Amino acid sequence: MSNVTPMMAQYLEIKAAHEGALLFYRMGDFYEMFFDDAVAAAEALDIALTKRGKHDGDDIPMCGVPVHAAEGYLLTLIRKGFRVAVCEQLESPAEAKKRGYKAVVKRDVVRLVTPGTLTEDALLEARRHNFLAAFARVRDTSALAWADISTGAFHVMELPEVRLGPELARLAPSELIVSEGGEAPFDLAEDMGVALTPLARSSFDSTAAEKRLCELFGVTTLEAFGSFGRAEISAMGAVIDYLEITQKGKLPLLQPPVRDAQDRVVQIDAATRRNLELTRSLAGGRDGSLLAVIDRTVTPGGARLLDQRLSSPSRNLGVIHARLAALDFAIDSPRIGQDLRAALRKTPDLDRALSRLSLDRGGPRDLAAVRTALAQAEILSDLLPAADLPDLLAAAARDLVGFEDLAALLDTALVADPPLLTRDGGFIARGFDADLDEAVSLRDEGRSVIAGLQQKYADHTGIASLKIKHNNVLGYFIETTATHAQKMLNPPLSEAYIHRQTTANQVRFTTVELSEMETRILNAGNRALELEKRLYERLRREVLDRAARIHTAARALSEIDLTTALADLAQDENWCRPEVDDSRAFDITGGRHPVVERALRREGDSFVANDCDLSAGQGAAIWLLTGPNMAGKSTFLRQNALIALLAQMGSYVPADRARIGLISQLFSRVGASDDLARGRSTFMVEMVETAAILNQADDRALVILDEIGRGTATYDGLSIAWATLEHLHESNRSRALFATHYHELTALAGKLEGVENATVSVKEWEGEVIFLHEVRRGAADRSYGVQVAQLAGLPKSVVARARVVLDALEQGEREGGSQKALIDDLPLFAAAPPPPPAPAQTSPVVQMLSEIHPDELSPRDALDLIYRLKDAAET
Question: Strand, helix or coil at 147?
Answer without folding.
Answer: strand
